[in-house]
Specification:
Elements: H1 3-29, H2 40-76, H3 80-83, H4 87-106, H5 109-117, H6 120-129, H7 140-178, H8 185-225, H9 228-233, E1 237-238, E2 252-253, H10 256-287, H11 290-301, H12 308-335, H13 347-371, H14 375-383, H15 388-416, H16 420-425, H17 443-450, H18 460-491
Antiparallel strand pairs: 1-2
Length: 495
């Protein structure tokens, strides 16, 4: 039985359990709901919870542990010669075994008999003809191990199906027996819901902690090879990849050029995005009619749905050449030399296009925040004789400032983490310069560069990506702390 069918069987048992639990509560109460501590639906929900939740928990644990136990048994049954090989070779051989096992499940009886009668080379040909290519020649023990793997998987699936169905039905029967006039079904159901909410919150928190710990562990390995002061205060980025097995770290890992490029391009993007986005939000919230707002806002938010790679191509083929050509014309008019002073790939190009991409973030979030300002503040200001523009400037914007700061923080985080636009519009040159007309690069671009290709996380050239990642995390954390300070400071004036 497939996993999806088993899942729907448990769901079906849960639905039936809900109906039976509600019906039993009705029969016990004799049609008088006041005889019961909880409503009929709570009794049905309690029975449904007992029929589904334990079954799903056991199913998840079984699916996590079962394959590991099967793999361990299959590996232990391999010949001693196969077990004495290197770990990488053992993993490769086990991958071949799993491929053979998958192929055996797809063969008919005649082909399967032909496969068993052939040698290893013939097995590879037969499996390849049926859409199961193998990387190398299979050995005889691999065919035996594949058959054993299929048998264990089938037995595991059968036992899991029986256990899950029995557990589900048993939970439903136990829940039905617990239904009584004074049984607190509502309290039990609410406890389950509260537990589910806590688990969901814990998953989000633990995921964040796991990401941080994984980056920190690899960052520590990087700093064991490269001194931290050379990374944080270095002004040259040249991570030359060393030869395989070489002990020399190779290259220089200065963060300053990447950090400067990240902040510079992000600043230029915010200079374009914030005024346009904020002013459009003020217009839509305070001046535009309801009909015009219903048209403009969706059109503006379309920009948020465009993939960043499209923005990158737009910068590479349109904005960059346009700025380059217009600068050549300006230079020709001013000096007579038609040489362009703005390169096609530059900080200005990347910042301008990224600013266009960020406009809907600033506009949409700021619009929602401004419209959430109480109407009484607007009416009070207008009633005292202030104009609409004075009301916006002196009342609405100060009241909405904490939320706007949060919107700008989210926009800044989005700008710091952008990659594709920078790759195509600003280049990959890691250098220190302050002209917006020259190319630069960012931390995210170099993270991608360092992790591109078939690499192992054993050299500083790859481990530096984790150091760059944790640096971005710290920058974002500092922005959040500062934004929280601003929010609390101004919120006290309006509460």
């Amino acid at each position: 039985m497939s996993l999806s069918i088993l899942f729907f069987i448990v769901i079906a048992i849960g639905v039936v359990s809900y109906l039976m639990g509600s019906s039993r509560a009705v029969s016990i109460a004799g049609g008088k709901a006041s005889m019961l501590h909880s409503r009929y639906g709570y009794h049905g929900s309690f029975v449904a919870v007992l029929a589904t939740v334990p079954a799903f928990i056991v199913m998840a644990a079984w699916l996590s542990i079962g394959p590991m136990l099967i793999e361990s048994r299959v590996r232990q049954a391999l010949p001693e010669q196969a077990q004495s090989e290197a770990a990488a070779t053992q993993n490769l051989n086990y991958g071949t075994i799993t491929s053979i096992a998958r192929g055996l499940r797809e063969l008919d009886a005649d082909t399967l008999a032909k496969l068993k009668a052939s040698d290893a080379a013939g097995a590879r040909t037969i499996l390849g003809d049926h859409g199961v290519p193998l990387a190398g020649e299979p050995q005889a023990y691999m065919l035996t191990a594949a058959e054993s793997l299929n048998t264990m998987n089938a037995t595991n699936a059968l036992v899991m199906t029986i256990v899950i169905i029995v557990l589900s039905v048993g939970g439903a029967m136990f829940g039905l027996r617990m239904i009584a006039p004074r049984f607190r079904a509502r309290n039990r159901v609410e406890q389950v819901i509260l537990t589910a909410l806590i688990v969901c919150s814990s998953i989000a928190i633990l995921t964040t902690v796991g990401i941080i710990m994984s980056m920190l562990s690899e960052t520590v390995h990087f700093f064991q090879a490269v001194p931290a002061w050379k990374f944080f205060f270095g002004t040259v980025w040249d991570p030359r990849f060393a030869a395989a097995g070489a002990s020399d770290t190779g290259g220089q890992f200065g963060l300053i050029p990447l950090l400067l490029g990240t902040l510079y391009i992000g600043l230029v993007a915010m200079l374009f995005a914030v005024p346009v986005g904020l002013f459009s939000a003020i217009y839509m919230a305070e001046y535009a009619s309801a009909r015009l707002r219903s048209i403009i806002k969706p059109l503006l938010e379309v920009l948020a749905g465009i993939p960043t790679i499209v923005y990158g191509f737009f910068a590479l083929t349109t904005i960059g050449p346009f700025l380059r050509d217009i600068s050549a014309k300006i230079s020709g008019i001013a000096t007579g030399d038609v040489a362009s002073f703005i390169q096609a790939q530059s900080v200005l190009t990347a910042g301008f296009v990224m600013g266009i991409m960020l406009i809907p973030y600033v506009s949409s979030l700021s619009d929602d925040i401004i419209t959430a300002v109480p109407r009484s503040l607007r009416d009070g200001s207008l009633g005292l004789g202030a104009t609409r523009s004075e009301t916006v400037k002196n009342v609405i914007l100060p009241a909405a400032l904490p939320g706007i700061v949060g919107a700008l923080l989210m926009t800044a985080s989005r700008a710091v983490g952008e990659t594709m636009i920078v790759v195509l519009a600003a280049g990959v040159a890691a250098r220190i310069q302050f002209s917006p007309f020259e190319p630069m690069t960012t931390v995210t671009v170099k993270i991608v560069n360092q992790l591109t290709g078939d690499l192992e996380f054993t050299s500083p050239q790859t481990l530096v990506a984790f150091a760059l990642g944790i640096t971005l995390f710290v920058i974002t954390l500092c922005l959040n702390i500062y934004a929280l300070y601003i929010v609390r400071k101004y919120r006290e004036q309006y509460e």
